[in-house]
């Protein structure tokens, strides 16, 4: 029994470190903030820390977050999406999240939905037609949703 507890504890500890970074990471961000005055150098240092652990994104101040840092973090681990401010999400990032989790289409802002993505979404699941913006409900998209629905029955 103690072995099982030790293994469980180890996995929990790794998960916490992965998801929350660690105190040392937080200190590194603070050190950069206090000692590096060149914003380009600071961003590169932040990028190195994010490449080590994308959840280090949580240690950035709002004014330090950049598109590049967010894109790199998401490319490493999609579950950091909740740490990325909405203004830094790009169309490509939203499409990546959808491709990895088709239910994400429902959460996707209408402004980020393209005709191609809407078509793909209704081909994957006809219920996604409910989440296609009305100005994008073309005959092609409606027909694709119907074909998908018809083939499910």
Automatic annotation (TrEMBL):
Top-rank taxon: Bacteria
Name of the featured protein: DUF4116 domain-containing protein
